[in-house]
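job 3f2a | input accepted
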Amino acid sequence: MASEAAQGSKAKLLDAAVRVFRKKGYAGTRVEDICEEAGLTKGSFFHHFKSKEEVAIAAADLFSDRADAFFADADYHRVSDPADRLIAYADFRKRHAAGALADFTCLLGMLTQETYETHPSIRDAAGKHILEHAAAIAKDAAEAKALHAPEARWTPESLGIFTQAVIQGAFILAKSKGDEGIAQDCLEHLQRYLALLFNRPFTEEEETR
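job 3f2a | predicted structure (209 res):
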């Protein structure tokens, strides 16, 4: 029973860390902020984590696990043509770029950008997860290239990374203006680019921006 309670408090702290880091960033977050968000004491925090850096790495892992589960169930996977599936992926990201900025932007990108020099262990943990997602997108890109653009000189890996560069940049620009519409516009341009890259149709409704 005590072990279950301990695991429960650790889970609360991790949930709280994800929420607070997404709102305040790494530098702006104090251990006290995480404890207050979780409704737990600093003693409980330091029972589970040695430092803010350690909980940030764990929060990046948790965020990535949740994102993987979210994407695994996404509707774009059911699109048969791999090029259309990539376009549907961009549309999926656009449709979910809505609401409070802290709720849909990426904790991994925030941590990578903020800690790339000061805390390389956090940078590496967060960056690894972004590149893993890029690699997953590259699998669809490889199928799409083989089917629609076999002679193209670009690589599926580079396209996978490019999609993440657009997405992370879209989030940064949306934050710069406090406007989710900026992210949506960027992601629609990504859809348009992918359609052009594979010579796929793009509907009139999608061409309005």
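job 3f2a | DSSP finds ten helices and no strands in the chain.
job 3f2a | closed
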